[in-house]
Design a protein that fits this description.
By secondary structure, this protein is of the alpha/beta class. The protein has 13 helices and eleven strands. Bound molecules: beta-D-ribofuranose and calcium ion (CA). Beta-D-ribofuranose binds next to helix 1, helix 7 and helix 12.
């Protein structure tokens, strides 16, 4: 079965891992990417999505999306985690293609309407573009095959004790997305923090696949520096690739179902919680993971590259 996916992204070092995995997977067809602010600005995210597609030698339509949250003032980009240009200490990478003229939310709606029941959305950044798409055309909810989100967490935060970065960067958008009646799998910190990789993993990739693995190995050093200073260990969580792997390999995950809502103000802003509101749809929430299985799946997929 081929999964037609649109990746909504803020590349971002782990975004690059996710996009390379998806590009190499024989059963994934990346039919579009959309850039959103988060780790970097929307302009840099959009350019970096094109950088990653071109490095994979794929022609993928890329649309630029939101540079600010729906309601609140921006928190500011996470350049201290991903680097000023998004890929660690690497300078801005040149591109030959250019973004579509169509804004991201309109591109998402058009693609879903042209392919009803076939498109899987994979947001791995703040959910602003996805919420804007729902606001632009609420009918897309019933026509989307699935939505696999990297974001949130029921019992964990990373930017605060309560909130995960993608949700914290636009909690109002995230709440709109979780309130919609479409089949969401929220791949959150509950599982992504269990999937950890080491410098040796990326050295292996740099040797076996210099173009793709070498790029990741260079970019990830800055991410490792952040983890070393923040968590005291040189390694990193594989947030965004875990969300894509959940599409193709659900067997690695133990899944619960919960109605979800997002706290949009106060000390717990950006927290994803179980909702008691009976009008809210239930979504899939992986709470357990075969972490070694997911990591090896990622590494072996990148090793099919070049
Ligand atoms: C998420 O936030 C971003 O920094 C990462 O790319 C990932 O999407 C993890 O909290
Ligand atoms: Ca991301």
């Amino acid at each position: 079965m081929t999964h037609k996916i649109i990746i909504d992204t803020d590349p971002g070092i782990d975004d690059a891992m996710a996009i390379f995995y998806a590009a190499l997977h024989p059963e994934i067809d990346i039919v579009g990417m959309t850039g959103v602010f988060g780790n970097v600005t929307a302009d840099i995210a959009t350019r970096n999505a094109i950088v990653l597609a071109e490095r994979c030698k794929q022609t993928i339509p890329v649309a630029k999306g939101a540079n600010t949250p729906l309601v609140m003032a921006p928190n500011g980009v996470s350049d201290y985690v991903h680097g000023v240009e998004g890929f660690g200490t690497m300078a801005a990478q040149p591109i030959t293609g250019k973004p579509l003229d169509e804004p991201a939310h309109e591109f998402i709606c058009r693609m879903i309407n042209e392919n009803p029941g076939e498109i899987t959305l994979c947001p791995i950044g703040p959910l602003t573009n996805i919420a804007r798409a729902l606001q632009h055309d609420p009918s897309i909810a019933a026509k989307t095959k699935a939505v696999f989100i990297m974001g949130g967490g029921l019992d964990l935060g990373n930017v605060t004790d309560f909130a995960e970065a993608n949700i914290w960067n636009d909690p109002h958008a995230a709440d709109i997305v979780f309130a919609a009646n479409w089949p969401i799998t929220m791949v959150g910190l509950d599982v992504t923090t269990q999937v950890q990789c080491t410098p040796a993993d990326f050295e292996r990739l740099a040797k076996s696949t210099p173009v793709l693995g070498g790029f990741l190995n260079e970019a990830v050093q800055f991410y490792f520096d952040f983890y070393a200073s923040h968590y005291g260990e040189r390694g990193c969580h594989m947030h965004d690739p875990s969300a894509i792997i959940a599409i193709t390999d659900p067997q690695y995950f133990t899944i619960e179902t919960h109605a979800l809502e997002v706290i949009v103000d106060g000390a717990r802003i950006g927290q994803t919680t179980r909702s008691a509101d009976p009008s809210r749809p239930k979504h899939k929430v992986p709470m357990g993971v075969d972490a070694e299985g997911v990591k090896q799946r990622f590494l072996s997929m990148i090793e099919t590259g070049f």
